[in-house]
Write a structure and sequence with these properties.
The structure is a homodimer of 173-residue chains. By secondary structure, the first copy, chain A, is mainly alpha-helical. Chain A contains eight helices and two strands; from the N terminus they run H-H-H-H-H-H-H-E-E-H.
């Protein structure tokens, strides 16, 4: 599938709704923070998505579009959520993520990006040169990565309950 | 996490809503059948979930609860959806899955299963002896497995667009 701005925003627009539906009504036994920066709980993943909306995708797109002297992105803090979320209820975090995502998508649509702009480049602090198009595609795949991760975190909590079926369940293997 | 009937139904009840939200508004380029029994598209995964509601979870629970002469489950057809779905729109399949899931969960709740019943056993045609509790836990993890699989199928469609970011995106690796 070739990169397409409209098809990218289709996925980006659904993610807050997907997470709301996936997680509403689940007991904290399913969704609580793990307290472990190396092995996140659902709560920690939502905090990470919020931090991405605030500091990653759109701010980096703005650096690329500005084409200023310094095109290097600010490094992203992958564990900021362990300080930032501070015991707020999960529903509140999901709502905050939804609002931030809406605001960011409105900005993206307002830009009316041209193919030329999508090919503009910035510098990732570790990976080097990247295009705006690649940044936006990565935003999409990053969402899907964390939806998949949430499903895996939930599934693993039931790992000891499935008995011999475990070998059929690739999410546990 | 120990098996808990209420906490299990929390996840089972959300899955149709999760899928609706995850997939509504996505172009067919994201969701179409792959036509490949070894490498399913999103459309094929939803067909598989429908077939599970019809022939797998509740029918097998009924075999266990009956404790009849023959406690062996009917083998599950993993590719039945390639014949069954016949080009119906994806939205229609998701709605059908939702209705089947609701009906099945109503039945499960009406049973008011006791701890003794949850420990009753049936025979899986390949895996051997399994308990009702394990069947129900597997139903939960199976849902999560396919939510995760859908995210992965979507992500892979954008694999060639993310450039050097690929190494950070575990869903592509």
């Amino acid at each position: 599938m070739k990169f397409d701005l409209k098809q990218s925003t289709e996925v980006l627009a659904q993610t807050p709704f997907t997470l709301q539906r996936m997680l509403e009504g689940l007991s904290p036994a399913w969704t609580a923070t793990s307290g472990d920066k190396e092995d996140w709980g659902v709560y920690d993943i939502i905090g990470h998505l919020i931090h991405g909306e605030e500091t990653d995708w759109i701010p980096r797109a703005e650096i690329i579009l500005a084409q200023g002297e310094n095109k290097t992105f600010v490094p992203f803090d992958r564990v900021a959520q362990f300080e930032g979320s501070n015991g707020r209820p999960l529903e509140e975090l999901i709502t905050e993520f939804s609002h931030l995502r809406n605001t960011n998508l409105e900005k993206l649509v307002r830009w009316e990006l041209t193919p030329q702009q999508l090919d503009l480049k910035g510098i990732h602090p570790e990976l080097g040169e990247v295009t705006l198009k690649q940044l936006l595609a990565t935003w999409v795949v990053h969402d899907l990565n964390h939806v998949s991760q949430i499903a895996r975190v939930l599934a693993r909590k039931y790992e000891s309950n499935v008995g011999v079926w475990k070998e059929y369940l690739s999410i546990l293997n």
